């Protein structure tokens, strides 16, 4: 069913009517396949603005190789500067109460969060993976991602985008509502070129989870915004369905977690957020033993992404130049370990053949990732993991 409704923007001025794609509302627990291992995002299974620590109790325990379904929840529409009432916030944009997720409402109403000290993200977990030990890698394979709603929000809040002190001009928070529409048989986000105008600017959806990680050792629950060796809010838009993320395990059981669902994001994420919206994620968790991991990739210091075509080492640092250096160093080390390249030849190859992309510049710690085509090395045998 396509819904036509009158919409109002955050300033109360009349805006062009929103049209919503015929996407079913995936309320928690509904429409699941028979026999699925399911993890909801509920007040009992999430943290709001903090990541699980190495001493937290798991909300789910699984075996290596197991596939689970997680209903992730976006923070947009839940935050205090948006009223902390998702039903009221989305009603301003023509979304009926029944199309607002029940778990989003429950989290906004009852999950504790310090609005000054904590991050914005709703993080689901931790998930204990039996057999995972420090030194191993945890491989999280993204099997499928389904939109739970036909709308999302892009926010530039508190001057924390790539242009601090310049944007936003209109105040401390600008939240831009974007319905999902179906055009030319594909799902797109739709924006107007001018406030209140027709939604003539469209861009394709490419859903991914901005946050996937493992718990660091110790009892401290890390802030949800800056990424690190543990993964976390890495915001790498290559992590769409079919890709995998490898993370160095830091505590027994790995204690994995996911969150920060996106419908679409450009590299850089310059306004602060992507098109943020809730996703139903089907994920497989595999333990890669330390010896096999080292044979395949060498010693990796942080997140490593694998797509159908690329191996993607990463670099993370508050200084973007240092993040670039870190990514280059990781890429050279990977080429040496996996394919036996001499250091100077690896450096030359990276310069000639590899794109280094800015993952994001808005999460305190900047991210850079390199896309190494595995097909370039088809003639060289390599261990796999």
TrEMBL record:
<dbReference type="InterPro" id="IPR004304">
    <property type="entry name" value="FmdA_AmdA"/>
</dbReference>
<dbReference type="Pfam" id="PF03069">
    <property type="entry name" value="FmdA_AmdA"/>
</dbReference>
<protein>
    <submittedName>
        <fullName>Formamidase</fullName>
    </submittedName>
</protein>
<dbReference type="GO" id="GO:0016811">
    <property type="term" value="F:hydrolase activity, acting on carbon-nitrogen (but not peptide) bonds, in linear amides"/>
</dbReference>
